Amino acid sequence: GLSGSFLPLSVVGVKQEIKDHFMSSPLGWGATYQAHPVALACAYESVKHMVKEDVVGHVKKMEPVFLDGIQSLIDEHPSVKQGRGIGLFGCIDTINKQGRLTQPLQGPITERNMEFKKALAENGVYGLLRLPLMHAAPPLTINEEELRDGFDRVHAAIEQSLDKDFD
To answer: pTM score, two decimals?
Structure first.
């Protein structure tokens, strides 16, 4: 995020017509972490750095590698139903042998999904795992070798856990 999660900060982006409405008809409240001068200074420096280092351009360059990695998970693992991504943010959906999601979004984690979570950690992969969805959001400065290595680690974790039910 804009403050690197070091400082609390929230930002909302809206179309001009929505902004114009609230400029003349304010609600009287905002986000919990809005407009603190230290957080805003941090955000400003982050934006300056992102522009200077062309982080957006780098993300555009890495997007095909990222999408290829997601597609390889779909193509090579029967436990991965589908995936999607934009830039360097994506998600895959995991399924069981019956073709159903590996578990509901709410409720306790299944034994096989616990194995997957453990296999990811053992392979050095940490992140947002809200099964049956696995989100992927590597650092925006990641290089191609690191990105491919990360997908190799996810492949290994899936083989060691979720794909067992398809043998």
So the answer is: 0.83
